[in-house]
């Protein structure tokens, strides 16, 4: 997975009481179906007397894995509304489980859809949303005479130096947005008249919390 996208900042839960029924939604960021299934199992274990545990999850840059289950609620009133809510928020690599303790009053199809969708919205608000940006590691080896010029230029570009190693030459490691890595590399070659030729390294994700 190499695309930039939005996901949850952390695991969280939120509770709503609607006509005496308790709806407790737990959400979390995940990396695999194994993560999702473990989270779903943990929620069910924490609420063994609940009437329903409705699980949904999305995986992949393009949501190539999507799972939703109504868990005993009328078809289309629980899992699908939860899944659609996550998709409408533009979230990826997330799991949500809404636990329902039935309060004795039936909500009807429309009421259930609103309750399950609303439970996800409330839990996501507690978890927060982050933009996952893929970063490319660049390694810059240079003569000491180039260090001030290069570090000043990196600061002007708001690029983060992650490590510096002082040996016969200085080696600086920089995290660069993946889409900009080749352009940054060319600019550094031009800036230093070819004395710095960046080496492209591995990709890694960076989570950037978004204002709510």
UniProtKB/TrEMBL annotation:
Residues 140-195 form the UPF0029 domain. Residues 19-123 form the Impact N-terminal domain. NCBIfam families: IMPACT_YIGZ. This is YigZ family protein. Belongs to the IMPACT family. Transmembrane segments: none annotated. It comes from Lacticaseibacillus hegangensis. It comes from the Bacteria. SUPFAM superfamilies: EF-G C-terminal domain-like, Ribosomal protein S5 domain 2-like.
